[in-house]
Every structure is written in C-alpha cells, then in structure tokens.
Please model this.
Amino acid sequence: MPPEIADPLFLAAAVPAVLLAGISKGGFGAGAGFAATPLLLLVASPEVAVGLMLPLLMVMDLTGLRAWRGRWNLREARPMMIGAVPGIALGAAFFWAVPEAAVRLLIGLIALGFVAFQLAQARGWGPRPDPEAARRPAPLRAGFWGGVAGFTSFASHAGGPPAAVHLLTRPLSKSEYQATTVILFWWVNVVKLGPYWAVGLFDEGQLGAALWLAPVAVVGMLLGVWAHHRVPAHLYFGLIRVMLTLTGGKLVWDGATGLIG
Model:
C-alpha cells in the first residue's frame, strides 16, 4: 500500500476530490472536475496531485464510455480530438516553463468571458446568435478549442471549461453534450499518458495510490450518470453555465493569487 493511502489527511482530501471529479465527468460535462486537483494540493505536491489524477480520470473514462456508448456526436468531437494533440504537445513542452498559476488565470478568464458573452446575447446586447450557423460544421473553431482544452488539461486537468466554450454553442441535446465530452476527454487523457510518464509525473507512487482510489472513481462516475438522467435539459445547461462561472471565478482567484504570491 502506498504510504499516502494510510494517511487520514490524504484520504480526507482525496476521496471527496475523486468523487467530485467522477460526478462531474459522469453527468455534467466535466465542468467541475477541475476542483479535484486543488483539493489534492492541500495534502500533496502539484506533481503528485496531477500525476495521481490522470490514471483515476482514465478509470472514469472507461466507465463513461460504457455508460454513454454511441450517444456522442463524432462530427463535433473529431476536430476537437485532432486539435487536442498539438495542444497537449505544447503543454508538455512548456510544462516547466509556464507557471501553473498563469494557466489557471487564463482558463478562468476564458470561462468568465464566455459566460458574460452568452448573457449579453440573451439580453439582446451585441450580435444575435444565428441558429443556421450553429448547425453548420465548424471544424477550425472546434480544433482551436480542442487545442486549448488539450493544453490546459495537460497542465492541471482543467480542459472542461475550454471544451464547454465550444460545445455550448453547438446544437447538442444534453445527452449528446455529455457523451461528447466523455469521448473527447477519454482521447485527451490517453494522449497525455506518454508525456506524463516522460516528464516524471508517475515517479512518486501515484499509480499505486490511484489503484486504491479507483473504486471511488467508478462510484463517482456512476453517481454522475444517475444524476444526469434526472435533471431536465433546461436545468442541465443552466447548471453547466453555473459550474462554468464558479470554475472560472475559482481559477481566476487561484491564478491571480498564485502569480502575486
């Protein structure tokens, strides 16, 4: 047993962190899953926290692929998956050069800016959304936001907000939206595995600790799937936007205080 698993403080942070990530990934588009890493940072170094979460996220992905099989929209997912690869490569290249606080600040500003833009549109300020344009494929836009999601996911498993910025503008049902995030981040996490190994993020017993926490990841994922089917569509997308706002605000705070401190 890895020594961290025997530490009550570690378990007090890790179990709710993994449950939260699983519920978010399983039913709510990974919108709040970013919070798992900050919770783990209370009891572990950044390298341990980030390295521990990747195999757990991959366990969640396998559970999610089974639960959401065939419901994803590959027309929307495919260009994002392609764009994620160079984004992950950039994340690996700049892993030691770019402060994590700067990445968090950038993600938070993107998330809050997008929510503000959508609220302005809903109030009739600025250009109105074109329903016909939303139905047309947008591979370049999807590839760009897939790249941003890959970059931010490599740095701190916070790819959910950039992915939501694109997917919330597409004509997807709530189950299509959820399933598309599942297959997208399954791919992102698979591609991240090799670079994580290369930069040494599994060198401190993270894989052993992840094995013990894997059942918690599966339970969290299944709870998320259960909750998804009991939330009406209009409330679901409202919750996604609320989580995006809370996520953005927390990331801006974390990033700003990290850079100042």
About this structure: The radius of gyration is 17 Å. The chain has eleven helices and no strands.
